[in-house]
Amino acid sequence: MNDTTPHANTISVMLEKAQSALKAGDKKEARTWAEKILATAPENVDAHLILAAIGSPKESLRHLTRVLELDPQNKKARNGMRWAIAQAKLEKEQDKQTSSKEDTQKIKVKASSTAQKNKKEESAKTYRYLGNLTVHRDRHRRIAGIQLVRIAPPEVRF
Question: Does residue 145 form part of some domain?
Answer without folding.
Answer: no
